[in-house]
Amino acid sequence: MALAKAIVSSRTLAKSLPLLSHLPKLSDAPPYSARTLGVIRAFSALVSPPAKAVVYEQHGPPDSVTRVIELPPVLVKENDVCIRMLAAPINPSDINSIEGVYPVRPQVPAVGGREGVGKVHLVGTAVKDLSPGDWVIPSPLSFGTWQTYIVKDQSVWQKIDNDSPMEYAATISINPPTALRMLEDFTSLEPGDSIVQNGATSMVGRCVIQIAKSRGIRSINIIRDRAGSDEAKDTLKKLGAEEVFTESQLEVKNVKSLLGDLEEPALGLNCVGGNAASLVMKFLRQGGTMVTYGGMSKKPITVSTSSFIFKDLALRGFWLHKWMSSNDVGESRRMIDHLLGLVRGGKLKYEMELVPFSDFHIALDKSLGKLGSHPKQVLKF
Ligand SMILES: NC(=O)c1ccc[n+]([C@@H]2O[C@H](COP(=O)([O-])OP(=O)(O)OC[C@H]3O[C@@H](n4cnc5c(N)ncnc54)[C@H](OP(=O)(O)O)[C@@H]3O)[C@@H](O)[C@H]2O)c1
């Protein structure tokens, strides 16, 4: 109970909530005047339902520090919107936040999650642009999406088309924009050019393949050796990958001999580190750039001296949070609308597994890699 209280106070629960217990229940009410009833209705209408939430009181291994609890109602202030969450994914950055190793994270105790989609449940008295039933996503990203009801200021919410597939709407704000930005912001790519990436089975990797393909850019993809890697290769090729190699296939003296008619890539994307990052660099052309945006293997990147001297490689980094902080929120929202348009047009697809919220801990174990490789886990509330 103490935990729920702490989280609720961090959710700005109204100090006046105890007043609720002093309000008479309408069913046993004596004949109140219409005005009094109006006040009672208006007051009770501006309180969220209780929420079920995944919370953690301290940082640590996500499977041991998280639990699902019920949080009491929250007052909906005049500029607030109360959202009934529909779906939210478990992303690597959510795991890192709970572990306490992600640079931007909420103070504990906290509710997990950073993106998702919900439906407006009720709005504060000053809210004009959102109405009950609208679909919204937190944009800019906002902590605490792993709960059934969220109350936050109207400025947090971006209204989206509610004919977007729910699981795509829930996952459109982090990984697809990362893929798009990395293809646009580092090198100038023309149709016929190629790029190379590792971690190609990830959601970001799949988006990179499809966005590149739609622009005539050919992708060389590296995946790890694991059960099901042949099926994964076929899936990525169907999405538009030009070549897909497992790391072990690239244990050759000269990886470029595998390029065939593909141009040497000017851009490489790395979300794995270790050997998988070295392989990306081996493919790059003279003066090429490798952008690192993740570290799934938790292994460092090692760069040969010759890569700098003879190939003059550039090593860069990308962090969506920084991009969003340095760009206007309108630009970010337009990018999300554009990406949702690609989804609705069937031009952006990725695998997901919708999981009932009651199975949160199974979904978490899958996301932690404890049960082998699984598609992105998306909680359905
Ligand atoms: N910098 C940014 O702003 C930013 C934004 C978005 C995402 N990211 C990063 O991008 C990466 C991908 O995120 P996502 O949400 O797209 O991933 P995801 O869909 O959850 O997929 C996870 C990916 O990581 C691979 N993987 C898992 N454990 C691994 C290991 N020990 N060694 C090598 N590969 C491993 C998986 O390969 P299998 O298919 O073989 O299991 C899969 O490709 C993450 O590192 C994430 O933090 C960064």
Automatic annotation (TrEMBL):
It is an enzyme of class 1 (oxidoreductase). One of its GO terms (cellular component) is mitochondrion. The keyword Oxidoreductase applies. The keyword Coiled coil does not apply. It catalyses: a 2,3-saturated acyl-[ACP] + NADP(+) = a (2E)-enoyl-[ACP] + NADPH + H(+). It is found in: Mitochondrion. One of its GO terms (biological process) is fatty acid biosynthetic process. One of its GO terms (molecular function) is enoyl-[acyl-carrier-protein] reductase (NADPH) activity. Its EC number is 1.3.1.104. Keywords: Fatty acid biosynthesis, Fatty acid metabolism, Lipid biosynthesis, Lipid metabolism, Mitochondrion, NADP, Oxidoreductase, Transit peptide. Residues 60-379 form the Enoyl reductase (ER) domain. Gene3D superfamilies: Medium-chain alcohol dehydrogenases, catalytic domain, NAD(P)-binding Rossmann-like Domain. Belongs to the zinc-containing alcohol dehydrogenase family. Quinone oxidoreductase subfamily. This is Enoyl-[acyl-carrier-protein] reductase, mitochondrial. It comes from Rhodamnia argentea.
